[in-house]
Structures are given as C-alpha cells and as structure tokens.
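Margin note: ligand = magnesium ion.
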Amino acid sequence: MDDAAAARGEKLSSGNVNHLIDSVDCFLFDCDGVIWKGDTLIDGSKEALDMLRSKGKKLVFVTNNSRRSRSQYAKKFLSLGIPVTQDEIFSSSFAAAMYLKLIDFPPAKKVYVIGEEGILEELKLAGFTGIGGPEDGKKTAEFKANSLFEHDKSVGAVVVGLDQYINYYKLQYGTLCIRENPGCLFIATNRDAVGHMTDLQEWPGAGCMVAAICGATEKEPVVVGKPATFMMDFLLEKFKISTSRMCMVGDRLDTDILFGQNAGCKTLLVFSGVTTPSAFHDPSNHTHPDYYTDKLFDIVSLM
Ligand SMILES: [Mg+2]
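Resulting structure:
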C-alpha cells in the first residue's frame, strides 16, 4: 500500500485484524449504528463483544444519545441479551451532569432541560435539580398581548440534547434563561446531525435542537459529548489504560472517529450506521480512521 492509501486508513482484513486486537486493551464503542439501530441489534455485534470479552479486553460504551441514563442503557443492553454494567457506559447525559459537577455548578441553581429522561436522571444522581424535559413536551406557547411568558430566574444552565418532544414552549423557555438569567450556561450533549432512532431510518439528531437554541440566543454551547474529549477524562481516571492501547469503534466520522483521534486512540469505522462507503471514500472527506470495515462482526469473521 502506498503512503496516500495508508493515510486514508486500512480496510480491516485477515492480515491486520489480529494485530489490531493484540495492540488494544480497551475497545470503546459507539452504540447507535454499531451495536444496534434503534431497538434492533445489528447482526453479529453480540458475538463480536463476546469474543473481545473472552480475550480479556475491556469494553466501554460511549454514546452521544442522551435520551437514556447509564442505568437505562444497561437495561437496554440486558434486554438485547448483552450483559453490560452501568460503569461501562459513558453517555452524553452523564457527561452533562459531570460537567456541571466539575465546574462546581451551585446545586441551589436549577438546570432547564431540552431533552429527555436520561438527562434529568443523571442530573438528579449528581445532586442537581433539573426542570423541563418530557414534562414540558405537552405545553404550548401562545402569542398574547400584554401577557408575559414566565421563566424561572434561578435557572443557571440550559442543557440541550436529543428531544423527540421539542416544541416552541421549550425553545422560548431555554432562550429566555440563556438571554435573561445572568451567567446562565448553554450546554449541548452533542451536535449529531442525524441518528438511527429507528432501525429503518435516520432522524434529526441533537444538533437540530442545539441549532435552534443557537439561532435564538446567538450563542454557542459547551459540547460535552463526542467529538469533545470531555468524557475521556472520566474514562481514563476509571480504567487507567493508555489511550494508545484503546480503539474507538464508531459509525460517524465527525463524532466517533474524531473523538478517538482527538483522544489519541486507534480508530475503526464501521459502515453499519450513518457513514456510507461512498461518503467515506469521497475526496471531500478528510477524516480517516486507522481501519474501516462493513460491520463489527467482521473482527470475528476475519480472525
Ligand atoms: Mg452512531
């Protein structure tokens, strides 16, 4: 292979798969598009995880999808027949709560959530008061003369993640907090454009909700999910493995592969999710993983 081809990544093959496995102690996995699509397991992903566990590899799941908390993700894994503990899961919902902890966000202040149950649960576990979320999904905003849209002045942060119940009420609430509460933080769980919320289709991702608040506030958020390496700091503290002995496996170039590269990990791109082979090989793509392959199970079938 010439240098230009090598720089674009190697196709996973029977000639390099054993080297990859031997050179890695900890595999980090994105979930949507790698392990499952929506609530449907991708063929062979369970077998691939079983094989890596049997070889003594540490497995960690790093997901930008903030709809669930870590314990809710652990339950989802179990329901799909994959034993995973909460400690092995790093979700962007958890990252948002950990970010607030890290900056000593005052627990007396509230957090307004444009997002789902996972963010509220992680905030609560971290000792913070989250408001909004699913409950505000049923509320409506009306344009009425001489009537003020009230918002809580004690909100000190707005966390925005994937929200299938996004509405104009929440947009106004979050916007008012950021624009009018002095020092109010704007935190995004992630900015994924789209994701496989169901097995057959892609849907607008958290990037869509975040863009709405950016548009209204003319502010940019702090992003805690991939490709930001914020979650990696927690992961390193917990597992004490050098990032050079880690491999990030994902289906998105702009989040998963970039996250792995930003953190100094090896990277493996799979085509079972968002990225198509033609988009990857297109000259306009400048993000290149160390390895690429069709699906996770290839690491078993190529061995
Ligand atoms: Mg994905």
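The first strand starts at residue 10 and ends at 11.
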